[in-house]
Design a protein that fits this description.
The strands form five sheets. This protein has a seven-stranded mixed β-sheet. A three-stranded antiparallel β-sheet has the order 8-9-10, covered by helices on one side. The mean pLDDT is about 80. Helix 1 packs parallel to helix 4 and helix 3 packs across helix 7. About 30% of the residues lie in helices and about 20% in strands. With about 270 residues, it is α+β, with helices and mostly antiparallel strands. The protein folds into two domains: about 110 residues, no CATH class; about 110 residues, D-Amino Acid Oxidase, Chain A, domain 2, CATH 3.30.9.10.
Length: about 270
């Protein structure tokens, strides 16, 4: 599957454009701004939109081509980014075994430079971390998604001065080629949605009979104090627990210099 996406993203330009997915935009604009994890994010169009609205975004994707295009775009447009690397830390022998498999999975998905570290080795990277073993992921990094979003908007307008970039707009309904929003009704030949957590609702709207329902979770983050943030250099993650479908609480250095700890997992009822 990774070969498919690498080929797709290796084409000139951006495979799905630079504007956010319409359905993603509709739903994210309804929510209170906070922290957001976007797996399988591709070339970053949804992540940069969310960041421009004030969300603090972690975006990941298995395609190294997608990663490279994002970094190249940032460099060409003088946007701030840092490929600082991360460590994934095992705190017991059971997690240590899962860490071995995590390294294999990463290599199969095209990651380069993965290395298993002893406590003595990983404490040279993160001196305040304790554990029995860690996985070093040198290609992980952070980026100014808000800056990328603003630059995308500038480029869209430069291509077509009549292009509309509409924000703070709620999509209330859609039918065929018409979209009803809080800022009026718009017509389009094509309407593209990225269903995500709302895929079951979209399916129901199209009268698809479902035997399952998506249950959404949101994550709360905390920002470390000036005194505490000195204890974290870059990115520190736990070993994923296969019994729970969550990322796990981790430390993330933000592009502006702050450090966040989170997320927990709270049922999202709305």
């Amino acid at each position: 599957m990774i070969d498919f996406w690498n080929k797709r993203y290796n084409e000139d330009g951006f495979a799905y454009g630079t504007n956010p997915n319409a359905f993603f935009k509709e739903q994210i604009d309804k929510l209170k701004v906070g922290n957001l994890l976007l797996p399988l994010e591709g070339e970053g169009r949804n992540a940069v939109y969310a960041a421009s609205k004030g969300w603090k975004v972690d975006a990941v994707d298995q395609s190294e081509i997608g990663h490279d295009k994002t970094r190249k775009f940032a460099k060409e447009n003088n946007l701030n980014y840092d490929v600082c690397g991360k460590i994934v830390v095992a705190i017991n022998e059971e997690e240590s075994k899962r860490l071995d498999q995590l390294k294999i999975n990463g290599e199969q998905n095209g990651l380069v430079g993965l290395k298993l570290l002893t406590p003595e080795e990983f404490q040279k990277i993160e001196p305040n971390v304790d554990g029995v073993k860690a996985l070093w992921v040198p290609e992980s990094g952070i980026i100014d998604y808000k800056g990328i979003t603003n630059k995308f908007a500038d480029k869209v307008k430069s291509i077509n001065s009549e292009s509309l970039i509409i924000t703070d707009c709620e999509v209330k309904d859609y039918k065929e080629n018409q979209i009803k929003t809080s800022k009026g009704i718009y017509k389009s030949k094509h309407i593209i949605f990225c269903g995500g957590l709302f895929a079951d609702r979209l399916a129901a709207k199209d009268k698809v009979k479902l035997e399952m329902q998506i249950v959404g979770f949101r994550g709360d983050y905390y920002e470390l104090s000036e005194r505490a943030k000195r204890k974290v250099n870059n990115l520190i993650y736990p070993v994923p627990n296969p019994e729970f479908p969550f990322l796990g609480v981790h430390f993330t250095r933000m592009i502006e210099g702050g450090i966040e700890a989170g997320p927990n997992a709270v049922l999202a009822f709305k």
